[in-house]
Specification:
By secondary structure, this protein is an alpha/beta fold. The protein folds into two domains: 265 residues, TIM Barrel (Alpha-Beta Barrel), CATH 3.20.20.105; 104 residues, no CATH class. An eight-stranded parallel β-sheet has the order 4-14-13-12-11-10-6-5. Strands 1-2-3 form a three-stranded antiparallel β-sheet. The two termini are 38 Å apart. The mean pLDDT is 95.
């Protein structure tokens, strides 16, 4: 696989590292957070605002884009970057999460997955090779292999079957990817829930396949935090140091700090944007639930220490008014703030690793943001 990742600095007291992932649409400085843009857009934001906030990449959902508007439309528009007018890197998922979230509609077999579209019931069959073809057609920078994971908890025999299928699908995906000679990056996904024997087997299987990067899937769905952190720590010891690691779907600040400390490089989650639309706003002093009556005449900004557009210009009273009236601008202004909050934390994490102060930064955030990080 390609030499696409370089470590620029490492924390002497943990496995935290700052690095750079090279992609066809530019570099990604890690640790990094990818805002979720399932349909080719981050909800409530236009791309220029997203770029101003400092987003280095976005995550798009290949399953949803496959259904609507469809590959033919995207191909005819010159690929996904051209279609959505986003000039920076794009990571596309494989549809593995949809196998999980739409399980009543999906059937997993050795050859791939078949399911009924959640839109109109159309029967769809996709193999691991199809998923690679789909993402190459989209032109994404980082593509994920098709994987299979189960709810937590699941019986060990079911987990063992899912790990075996994931490993075989990963090999088929890699082989297909090599046939296509794409400039994109292909990352594998380890499975096994919190059963270390199975997670270890999955990790070893995928490392042998020599992917450009590795993701940890099937976590953050109900297991104890101690189990999650143990899996991350043990995975850190097995995964190659010269490849980026991606903890899928993890968004709580406390979990992010613990994961960075255990060698994780990339994160995504709907938490900051979904919470913004629901009026739950992250600040340096905790969470503000803007609908609360106590903010009705509050002249202060959301966060007096925040330089984002929302905090520079608007009072809590006005933001509460917009939220109560269900104005579209409420979602816009809240999303700007919450995403700035997240992306700024990642900027500070990168800087702290480079200046050997990561542990101090982590402790400061964990001590002051208890309301944010639960």
């Amino acid at each position: 696989m390609k030499k696409s990742f370089a470590i620029a600095a490492a924390d002497p007291r943990s496995s935290a590292r700052a690095g750079i992932i090279q992609t066809p649409h530019g570099p990604i400085e890690t640790p990094a957070f990818a805002p979720v843009a399932s349909q080719g857009t981050v909800k409530a934001l236009i791309h220029s605002e997203l770029e101003q906030l400092g987003a280095q990449l976005i995550l798009c959902n290949s399953y949803h884009l496959y259904l609507r508007p469809g590959l033919e439309v995207i191909r005819n528009m010159g690929g996904l970057h051209s279609f959505i007018s986003w000039p920076r890197p794009i990571l596309t998922d494989s549809g593995g999460f949809q196998i999980y979230s739409l399980s009543p509609l999906a059937k997993v077999k050795e050859e791939g997955v078949s399911f009924a579209s959640h839109l109109d019931g159309t029967k769809i069959r996709l193999s691991p090779e199809d998923i690679v073809d789909l993402q190459v057609s989209l032109g994404s920078d980082i593509m994920m292999v098709l994987d299979y994971f189960l709810p937590f908890p699941s019986p060990d025999e079911k987990l063992r079957e899912a790990v075996a299928i994931t490993s075989r699908w990963a090999e088929r995906s890699r082989d297909r990817f090599r046939e296509l000679d794409s400039a994109s990056l292909l990352w594998g996904i380890t499975q096994g829930s919190v059963n270390w024997e199975l997670r270890k087997q999955s990790t070893e299987d995928l490392v042998r396949l020599d992917f450009d990067g590795y993701a940890l899937g099937g976590l953050g769905i109900g297991e104890a935090k101690s189990q999650l952190f143990e899996i991350l720590e043990k995975s850190d010891a097995l995964l190659p140091k010269d490849r980026p690691r991606y903890l899928m779907g993890m968004g709580y600040i406390s979990d992010i700090f613990e994961a960075v400390e255990r060698g994780m490089d990339l994160f995504d989650c709907v938490l900051p944007t979904r919470n913004a639309r629901n009026g739950s706003l992250f600040t340096s002093r905790g969470v503000i639930v803007i609908k609360n009556r106590k903010y009705a005449q509050d002249k202060r900004p959301l966060d007096e220490d925040c330089p984002c557009y929302t905090c520079r210009n608007f009072s809590r009273a006005y933001l509460r008014h917009l939220y109560e009236r269900e104005e579209i601008s409420s979602a816009v202004l809240h999303t700007i703030h919450n995403l700035y909050f997240y992306l700024d934390i990642f900027r500070k994490i990168r800087q702290s690793i480079q200046s050997n102060s990561f542990q101090q930064l982590k402790q400061r955030y964990l001590n002051t943001l208890k309301d944010v990080i639960r």
